[in-house]
């Protein structure tokens, strides 16, 4: 399946845990254990004096070194900085993620040998800035990111190979409509896919990048904290980071226990005083019922938007560690009438699919006709913030609607407003309502060096191109001059080329981020 000189590697870079897989010599996807012998690595970074510690050791240190811990950085991808200063520095989330990727690469290479090429997975609902940030994190870690693939797509590929509803070449034996429910540690996606022959077509996707297993954990955190406050006259263990880290560990353990049995006991100590509490599965499900309802609503809305009925769905795939909760399986069986596929561990399936996809990409030069074809959709509309001439108010002028099959190129005409105008500046946005409210501002599209002597109302055509992996590029031309003109995107978040070089230099120096 792959070039004999290359290793096909897939990385599931998760909010709470990350996984690496590769295709072994028999072409079978295999999870690579880290140096601690575990198949999953906590996505937690400890900045300890002049050292950086990643994974299980960082988790153990969190209650005592809370101010030096960075976790859940995946939720902050696309932002300019991590939510608080770490080690006295404002670190971009890309840098935090790159440190995790470096650890994953180092550990994997100790098992399978050197590699550079990887496929990294992202939530289907990740917008373009978050996708760019993920690519940039890979570059800072010294990886060659040959592609980014949506987590549900990767899962469908992996399940298909394992369950043999896909052949070894990735071809389905019959047409399948697959619903992929992805409830990870920090994000939630639901995706409908049609698999027909070698064509993997995403029909629709929806989700929430701020909904995941840690939100279920936080309900247990609040339950413990409120009981503690009752017993100790208002003392709240959530008042400092150390207390929060201890609470989160207890909550995560309790959540996992309740996936296996009906009741668990929680013992929590803070400030030399403790509580011992009983929590039943029924109580936990009551505490989190509204979170589950949010996912049900998202599923219903997505199926409606896709123009399908539930009875057209032929397979149900669950991915993400939080999908292990019994109430999730029960709800989905009621909603779809289907039993979920169970042949692969929900924590590993995404990385397996990414490794298979990496192998298919690497084999394309040998026999491209044997490769599967993947068609995604954009999870957010792409538009520009324009001025409504009738109301004189800003509006979201959508160029590429949500759930448009990718890749796609769409153009929009703009006009100069004065004679001899030198540039056109357009604000590019993703998502949002008709007024542009709640949209993500990608940045300014700047058309420079317009030719001299252009009259007012001269047409400037800007083409917006979404690639298969959800990354955006922009092209432009002047129809009346029949020429291309320079165009750049001045982004409002993320790292530009100069910042990438600077952070790359800092990470490469002896002492890394701590070097003076």
UniProtKB/TrEMBL annotation:
PANTHER family named in the record: HEAT SHOCK PROTEIN 70KDA
Keyword presence, NAD: no
Family: Belongs to the heat shock protein 70 family.
GO molecular function annotations of the record: ATP binding; ATP-dependent protein folding chaperone
Keyword ATP-binding attributed: yes
InterPro entries: ATPase_NBD (IPR043129), Heat_shock_70_CS (IPR018181), HSP70_peptide-bd_sf (IPR029047), Hsp_70_fam (IPR013126)
Name of the molecule in the record: Chaperone protein DnaK
This protein's UniProt keywords: ATP-binding, Chaperone, Nucleotide-binding
Transmembrane segments: none
Pfam families, alphabetized: HSP70 (PF00012)
SUPFAM superfamilies in UniProt: Actin-like ATPase domain (SSF53067), Heat shock protein 70kD (HSP70), peptide-binding domain (SSF100920)
């Amino acid at each position: 399946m792959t070039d004999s000189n290359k290793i096909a590697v897939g990385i599931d870079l998760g909010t709470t845990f990350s996984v690496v897989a590769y295709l072994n010599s028999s072409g079978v996807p295999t999870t690579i254990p880290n140096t601690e012998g575990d198949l999953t690595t906590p996505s937690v970074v400890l900045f300890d004096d002049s050292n950086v510690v990643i994974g299980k050791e960082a988790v153990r240190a969190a209650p005592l070194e809370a101010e030096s811990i960075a976790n859940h950085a995946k939720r902050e991808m696309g932002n300019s900085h991590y939510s608080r200063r770490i080690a006295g520095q404002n670190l971009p989330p890309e840098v935090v993620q790159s440190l995790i990727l470096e650890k994953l690469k180092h550990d994997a290479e100790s098992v399978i040998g050197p590699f550079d090429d990887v496929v990294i997975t992202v939530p289907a609902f990740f917008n373009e800035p978050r996708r760019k940030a993920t690519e940039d994190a890979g570059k800072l870690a010294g990886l060659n990111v040959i592609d980014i693939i949506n987590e549900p797509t990767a899962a469908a590929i992996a399940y298909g190979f394992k369950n043999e509803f896909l052949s070894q070449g990735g071809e389905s034996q019959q047409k399948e409509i697959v619903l992929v429910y992805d409830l990870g540690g920090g994000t939630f996606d639901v995706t409908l896919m049609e698999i027909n022959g070698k064509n993997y077509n995403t029909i629709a996707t929806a989700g929430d990048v701020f909904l995941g297993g840690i939100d279920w954990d936080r309900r247990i955190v609040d339950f413990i904290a409120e009981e503690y406050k009752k017993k100790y006259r208002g003392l709240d263990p959530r008042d400092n980071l150390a207390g929060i880290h201890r609470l989160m560990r207890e909550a995560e353990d309790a959540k996992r226990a309740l996936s296996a049995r009906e009741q668990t006991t929680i013992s929590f100590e803070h400030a030399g005083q403790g509580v011992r509490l009983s929590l039943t599965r029924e109580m936990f499900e009551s505490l989190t019922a509204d979170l589950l309802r949010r996912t049900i609503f998202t599923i219903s809305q997505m199926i409606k938007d896709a123009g399908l009925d539930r009875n057209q769905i032929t397979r149900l795939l669950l991915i993400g560690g939080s999908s292990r909760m019994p109430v999730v399986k029960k709800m989905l069986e009621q909603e779809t009438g289907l039993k979920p596929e169970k042949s692969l561990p929900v924590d590993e399936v995404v990385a397996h699919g990414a490794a298979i996809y990496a192998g298919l990409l690497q084999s394309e030069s040998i026999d491209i006709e044997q490769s599967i074809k993947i068609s995604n959709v954009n999870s957010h509309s792409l538009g520009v913030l324009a001025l409504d001439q009738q109301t004189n108010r800003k509006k979201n002028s959508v160029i590429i609607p949500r759930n448009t099959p990718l890749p796609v190129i769409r153009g929009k005409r703009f006009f100069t407003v004065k004679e001899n105008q030198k540039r056109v500046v357009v604000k590019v946005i993703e998502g949002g309502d008709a007024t542009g409210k709640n949209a993500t501002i990608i940045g300014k599209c700047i058309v420079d060096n317009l030719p001299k002597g252009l009259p007012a109302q001269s047409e400037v055509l800007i083409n917006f191109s979404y690639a298969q992996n959800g990354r955006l590029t922009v092209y432009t031309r002047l129809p009346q001059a029949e020429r291309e003109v320079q165009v750049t995107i001045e982004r409002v978040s993320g790292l530009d080329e100069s910042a990438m070089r600077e952070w790359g230099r800092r990470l490469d120096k002896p002492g890394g981020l701590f070097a003076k």
